[in-house]
Amino acid sequence: MNYMARNFTEDNSADLVLARNAGCDDPRLQRIMEVLVRHLHAAVRELQLTTAEWEAAIGFLTATGQICSDRRQEFILLSDTLGVSMLVDAINNRKVDHATPSTVLGPFHVDGAPQSAMGDSISRDGKGDRLLVHGAVLAPDGSPIEGALLDVWQTSADGYYDTQDPTQPDMNLRGLFRTGADGRFWFRSIVPASYPIPDDGPVGRMLAALKRHPMRPAHIHFIVDAPGYDRLTTHIFREGDPYLESDAVFGVKDDLVVPFDAVEDPDWAAGLGVSGCFHHARIVIRLQPTAAAVHGR
């Protein structure tokens, strides 16, 4: 068949498009487009899409782009809620035994979080139930990793990140910490809340049409960097949260769920400069060595 012909049919549609793309000199781009075109055309044929349905799909994607801004990325939400973000993460972050699992970055990370001293509070307005986080960054064999940099961020007790809520101080509930020689770190915060992803746009309308809720279980985000180890992007989730089984973005993994225990210890509280009950979470983060480190390069 002459794929440069003009006779476009249901049967030869994908072949004709790919033949027109044959001059691409980027092998990876050509392979990506080949797979995308074949699967897209196959989906249209299988579904027997109507013109109105295809126009609705184009309108949905147009609206998704139009609502994006420097503070909101609706395409990330779309990718997250379709499970694509977690699939890409899984493919690109296959772990050795005992390494901490990764999960999605999410749309609310910002650069420039303040460098904080060990034990500092990342809550800049003091609102919420107090939380103490103790942890360690280790190699898979359990040896401590000194000087690992942890970039930490989370929601307020109301379920909003500072970039969503103009009433919060700038860089509220964000901080950078470095581990000591023993690989340990600790900081003070507040107990995060489960919260809805932004659902006032096209992705929210999609979830509503699918009878899905937009909720994420309560969690704290971490990006952990250390020389000789792969960067880790992960969360810790609060044990017992009602949305652990139905996270809107599929981010929960069993190894990332930890208890946030209520503590009533006046002496410990006094040492922290607080009074009354607080919560405590203890975590261990195990990093995966880079391929170069494993092979001694």
CATH superfamily of the largest domain: Aromatic compound dioxygenase
How many discrete structural domains?
2
What does the main sheet amount to?
5 strands, mixed
The number of helical segments is 8
Low-confidence stretches: none
Q: Assign a percent range to the helix content.
A: 25-40%
Mean residue pLDDT: 93
- The CATH architecture of the largest domain is Sandwich
Shape: globular
For this structure, what is the CATH class of the largest domain?
Answer: Mainly Beta
Q: How many beta-strand runs?
A: 11
What is the H/E order?
A: HHHHHEEEEEHEEEEEHEH
Arrangement of strands in the largest sheet: 3-2-7-8-9
**N- to C-terminal distance:** 51 Å
The SS-based structural class is alpha+beta
For this structure, the CATH topology of the largest domain is Protocatechuate 3,4-Dioxygenase, subunit A
Rg from Cα? 23 Å
Proportion of beta-strand residues: 15-25%
